[in-house]
Amino acid sequence: MSANTPPSAPPGAPPTSAKSARPIRHATERTLDALLLKGRVASLSYRLGGLGRVRVTRYSVALGAGKALPRPLKIGFASDFHAGPTTHPGLFDDLRLALEAERPDLLLLGGDYVSFDAAYIAALGGFLGGAHAPLGTYAVIGNHDIWNGRAPVEAALREAGIGVLVNRGARLAAPFAHVSVCGIDDPWTGAPDVDAAFADAGDIKLFLTHSPDGVVLLGGRGYDAAFAGHTHGGQIAAPGGRPLFRPSGPASGKYNYGRYDIPGNGPLFVSCGVGCAGIPLRLNADPELLICTLSDPSASPDIVF
Ligand SMILES: [Fe+2]
Q1: For residue 246, what pLDDT band results from cuts at 50, 70 and 90?
Q2: Which CATH number does the domain housing residue 116 bear?
C-alpha cells in the first residue's frame, strides 16, 4: 500500500530501488522489523483473527458489442501479499486453498510481494510455486517491491513460471489468443510505459496495474477490464468498509476498493489485497481473492430451445 506513502516520483521517472535512496523509510522499516519480532507478532495476530479471513469476491463483466469469447473466461486476481514480518504466511496457505476451490482459467497478481526486505520473498515461494492456472499466471510489480529490490522479486516470480508484465503484454493461448494481459510498471515508483504494455495487444484487453493510478496514464487507450491493488481497502476500515486511510495519487484515493465503471472505458476492479503493510492488522478489510468472469452476451448459455 501505501496508505501513508505519497507518490515519490512522476510517471516516466527512472525507477529507484536502492534503500540508500530513502534513508528515513529504510530506518523506519528496520525499526518495525525488529519491533515485530521476526513475524511473531503477525503470528499472534493471525491466530486471533487480526489479519482477517480470506474471502472470495465475485464480479462479472459482459463484453461490449463486437467482442466475442468461445466461453466465459474466469479470471482470478490477488495482490499485496507483503511477505515479511507484517504478514503471517498462513494467509498464503488460505489463499492457495481458495484458489484451488475456484480454479480460475487465468491468474493475475498485482504486486507488493514483500515488505521491508526482498529476501522475504522466500516466505511466498510455496504459494508462487503452486499459483498456476490453465491459461497462465501473470504479474506486475508494486512500490514495496521496488523499494526493497525488484530484481530478486522478479526472479522469484519467473522461477515460479509466472510471466512478469513490466511494460509488456502477453496473449493467452488458443482459443483465447485474441485476449491480452497488458501490464505496466508501478505507476509512481517505477517507469510505466503504456505504449509498450499495449503493443500488439489483442482485441480483448485486460489491464494490470499495481495501483489504480495506472488508469490515469492510459491516454485514451481502451481496456475491457482493469485490475489493481495497492490501496488495501484502507487495511483498517470502519464497519461497512469505509477506509480510515487512503493512499495519495490521482486515482488511488478515489478508487479505493471495489468496482468502478470508468467513463469511456471498461470497469476497474480494486482489490483490498491479501497481506498487511506497516502493522500486522486488518480491520473490516479482509484478505481477498477476486474472481471476475468475463463473458460474451451473444453466446449466453441461458438460451433454451
Ligand atoms: Fe501494498
Answers
A1: confident
A2: 3.60.21.10
2 Cα: distance to centroid of ligand 1 (angstroms): 6
How far does residue 70's CA lie from ligand 1's centre (Å)?
35
Of 305, 245, 248, 254, the C-alpha closest to 278 is: 245
Task: Tell me the pLDDT of the chain averaged across its residues.
Answer: 89
Counting the structural domains of the chain, the total is: 1
Residue 11 C-alpha to ligand 1 middle, in angstroms?
Answer: 19
Closest CA to 61 of 44, 74, 48: 74
Report how far ligand 1's centroid is from the alpha carbon of 111 (Å): 7
Distance 61 CA to ligand 1 centre (A): 25
The predicted model scores a pTM of 0.89
CA atoms within 13 A on the CB side of 234: 16
Does residue 286 sit within a domain?
Answer: yes
Q: Is the residue at 10 inside a domain?
A: no
Residue 66 structural domain: 22-299
Q: Specify if 8 maps to a domain.
A: no
Locate 162 and state its grid cell: 509466472
